Amino acid sequence: MEPETPSAAPDPRVEVAVSERTFTLSRWFDAPRERVWRAWTDPRELAAWWGPHGYTNPVVEADFRPGGRLRIVMLSPEGVEFPAVGEFLAVEPPSRLVFTDDIVDEAPAEWRARLDRNRPSSPAGSPLRMVVEVTFEERDGGTLLTVTDTFASDEDRDAIMRDGAVIGWSESMERLEALVTAA
Predict the structure, then answer these.
(1) Which fold does the domain 6-180 belong to in CATH?
(2) What gap in Å lies between CA 118 and CA 120, rounded to an integer?
(3) Of 49, 111, 157, 165, which has the fewest CB atoms closer than 10 Å, so is most exposed?
(4) H-state helical runs in 63-153
(5) Cα–Cα nearest to 18, from 135, 151, 177
(6) Can you give the residue ranges of every domain in the chain?
(7) What pLDDT, in 10s, does the model give residues 75-96?
């Protein structure tokens, strides 16, 4: 299976670019940069929009400082937990966040097996880590949000893309829009 293409984003307002070891998604929000920043850095607000449609986040623990830990447990509509842990590498209010996102051992076995199949050069069960950079740029009276995921290899990038990362991020951005533009 080939990686998702830029046209795979369900929301035409999401621009997708793929390059060596990375994929980048950008979307403009009709909300002030400080409002979009708060939605990313307030754990309660992060829990309200993170993940695809139908997912919830019963656990969001975040220490928003360089070296601070991040732990999010997404819960699928079927009740399957998808935990991710990471560390903040940079926190520059209100313009930039950088953090690691590690696929952890507690991830559902079916999902780990699917990722392993999509990473034939990697040993089964090997760690998958991405570095996520999020920038918040004031533009046209709103905010241009750009999310860049960087991987150890193209194979890791492709495995995550095959598993629906572009669609997941696009749906997350739809949920984020609803939150930051609510009256």
Answers:
(1) Alpha-D-Glucose-1,6-Bisphosphate; Chain A, domain 4 (3.30.530)
(2) 6
(3) 111
(4) 109-117
(5) 151
(6) 6-180
(7) 999 999 999 999 999 999 999 9
